[in-house]
Amino acid sequence: MKTYSIEHVHIWADGLDHPECIAVHPDGSVWAGGEAGQIYRISSEGLVEEVANTGGFILGLAFSPEGWLAVCDLKHQCVWRYEPASGTLTCLAKGAENQLFRTPNFPVFDSVGNLYVSDSGEFRKENGCIFKFSIEGKQEVWHAGPFAFANGMAIAAKEDKLYVVSTWLPGVETIELLPNGAAGERSTLLHLPKTCPDGIALDQEGNLLISCYAPNTIYCLDKKGALSILLHDWEAHTISNPTNIAFGGIDNKDLFIANLGRWHISKLSLEQAGLRLAGQKKYTK
Fold it and tell me: Cys-Cys with 37: which of 2, 55, 154, 271 at CB 3.0–4.6 Å?
């Protein structure tokens, strides 16, 4: 994948409250959160609307195959369920029966609707884990780790592997998704010294994009294992402490970037389309 300059990126939506997260709805709208509990819906024209507020601090977002939004809340230490059609906001979970959330950070759904949530654990401590909430209603610590601040996640196209960012590793790990639903072998995919990786997204070719809170860089690990810089902003203005990233747009070739360090969502148009997530499969525009 080629390297892009900051001139290829533009500020697509402005006026958000230090957005940490980004998710794309099946209708093509982009959703984000704010540090005071805001849940934002952003139209295809980049118009921002606050549709709900938890009074907390919103971390990761993800749409389920059924169309509801999973919302990780740092302050309330829970995952909310938001229904876009009705505007209903309810607490989905505060953890599992034998362990509560410390820092519920990022949610990801598989194609049938099982929800995985990374729990970063305590700051600078290696005690992160991954929870699973099955479609049958089972709530469990799916992988006990410990992870060095488990953060963004992505599921491989064949749903046989879960990618997990470990911010203080720093790098990316993988966990096998076994046919019976259990966690399989865990391994380190990539070390990124002197960085703080946060979010990840896969494209349709199997390349992995990794956004780093520091040093304002998005890397690409291609399917052959070669690492390159996709985008870097030394000024930290157009992309500033980039956290979560997500593909969207009509052809799913637009990369939307949440900037925790500022007040906007950036957009970069790529040549390769992103892998459609479980919550995007009904997208028809």
Answer: 55
Say which CATH number the domain at 156 has. Answer: 2.120.10.30
Residue 274 included in any domain: yes
Cα(141)–Cα(144) distance, rounded to whole angstroms?
6
Instruction: Give a yes or no: residue 1 inside a domain.
Output: no
The single-letter DSSP state of residue 21 is -
The SS3 assignment for 131 reads strand
pLDDT at 204: 96
**Cα distance between residue 285 and residue 39, in whole Å:** 23
| Mean pLDDT value across the chain | 96
pLDDT at 245 over 90: yes
Kindly state the average pLDDT of the residues 81-95. Answer: 97
Cα–Cα distance measured from residue 50 to residue 33, given in angstroms and rounded to the nearest whole number: 9
CB 272 within 8 A of CB 254: no
User: 281 pLDDT band (50/70/90 cuts)?
Assistant: confident
Measure the N-to-C terminal CA separation of the chain; round to a whole number of Å. 26
- Asked if pLDDT for residue 282 goes beyond 70, the answer is no
Degrees, nearest 5: CA angle 248-263-232: 65
Residues in the chain: 285
- State the Cα–Cα distance between residues 247 and 257, nearest whole angstrom: 9
Q: Are 118 and 127 in contact (CB under 8 A)?
A: no
Categorize the per-residue pLDDT at 150 as very low, low, confident or very high, splitting at 50, 70 and 90. very high
Phi, psi of 10 (to 5 degrees): -135, 155
Distance of CA 142 to the CA centre of its chain: 18
Q: How far apart are CA 172 and CA 192, in angstroms?
A: 8
Residue-level pLDDT at 1: 77
